[in-house]
Amino acid sequence: MSDNDDVPFNRNFPLKPGVVEEVRPGVRRVLCNNPSPFTFTGTVSYIVGKGNVAIIDPGPDDAAHAAALLDAVRGETVSHIFVTHTHRDHSPNTARIKQATGAPVYAEGPHRASRPRFESEKHNPESGSDRDFVPDIRIAHGDVVEGDGWRLEAVATPGHTANHLAFAWPERKFNFVGDHVMGWSTSIVAPPDGSMIDYMDSLDRLAARAEDLYFSGHGPEIPDGQRFVRFLIRHRKAREASILHRLAKGETDIPTMVRAIYIGIDPRLTTAAGYSVLAHLEDLVARGVVATDGDPVIGGTYRMA
Fold first, then answer.
1. Where is the Metallo-beta-lactamase domain (predicted)?
2. What burial class does residue 249 get, using C-beta atoms within 10 Å of its C-beta: 0-12 exposed, 13-18 middle, 19+ buried?
3. pTM, rounded to two decimals
4. 3-class DSSP state of 121
5. Which of 12, 30, 34, 41 has the fewest Cβ atoms surrounding its Cβ within 10 A?
6. Chain centroid, CA 256 distance in Å
């Protein structure tokens, strides 16, 4: 995508599905075989520690991936299960791993939207949300969970979803950032589940922390994490500037903006790009920079305020 040239994305991720790889001492990863335009090569689940371990993001409803994860920890005890957020490519397999291990599940809470739905918005039951997920133990920003030889701190990172958490391992300067930061592409922020205002605040929160090696929900690890986050902040501000540049030419709708801004986009991602533009417009309308008639929705028309 031409508009991503400002971010040094890394799409080199040769990990094969079902293979356990120790990426750093105390951190293993297993790739699920669920590739798509949204998941890249698939969802990455992490195993933290040795002997008594935690699993982060068991992945989609996929028996083969659950078997691969359990095979990777054969002879070990799974003491904790962590879930970064409730999209269907991250949380549904939790039930299988819990049933096999008896480990309690830690997460921010059930799925919820970032804001109430507007009357004019149709609820899409086919959206990627796992509405069945309920954690055993709800954790919030700053909560610390300790295991055998590891210690994870919950970092609130709403934006991609309202209940998104990253899990920092401060002593190792590692951060398991879920889908908030990805090395292969920008994250999708699609209202009402997602919020650009929250997303930008969460990027600032990560940039201010000391962890500098990020392990993402999809794709390769991200070295120099804070620098990468600063790239993403600049990229989002440039996207906002592109929207304002188009609106300066006159009132328009979201499909027109997508065509103007996302040159050469994979057609399968056009809808998602529209929701990303909507997320920016929600923010701009809230700040009084852009105007629309009624609520800021995907089918609306927009103009400079």
1. 41-218
2. exposed
3. 0.95
4. coil
5. 12
6. 27
Encoded tokens for 1: 């995508």
CATH 1.10.10.10 location in the chain: 237-304
Cα angle 39, 44, 47 (rounded to 5 degrees) comes to 165
Q: How would you classify residue 241: left for phi > 0, otherwise alpha for psi between -120 and 50, otherwise beta? A: alpha
* 202 contacts 175 by C-beta, under 8 angstroms: no
Residue 112 main-chain phi, psi, to 5 deg: -155, 160
Our CA angle for 288, 291, 293, nearest 5°, is: 135
Mean pLDDT of all residues in 74-82? 98
Domain 237-304 has CATH 1.10.10.10: yes
The answer to whether the peptide bond before residue 116 is cis (omega within 30 degrees of 0) is no
Distance between CA atoms of 179 and 100, rounded to whole angstroms?
26
pLDDT surpasses 70 at 125:
no
pLDDT of residue 1: 32
**Which has more pLDDT, 170 or 126?**
170
What is the reported pLDDT for 127? 65
User: For residues 70 and 76, what is the distance between their CA atoms, to the nearest angstrom?
Assistant: 9
pLDDT value at position 4?
44
Q: Virtual CA dihedral for 128, 226, 15, 155, nearest 10 degrees?
A: -50
What stretch(es) of the chain map to CATH 3.60.15.10? 19-233
For residue 40, list its beta bridge partners.
36
Predicted local confidence at residue 124, as pLDDT: 58
CATH 3.60.15.10 fits 19-233, yes or no: yes
Residue 276: Cβ-neighbour burial (10 angstroms; 0-12, 13-18, 19+): buried
Handedness of CA 132, 134, 140, 144 (dihedral sign): negative
Pairwise CA distance, residues 69 & 293, whole Å = 50
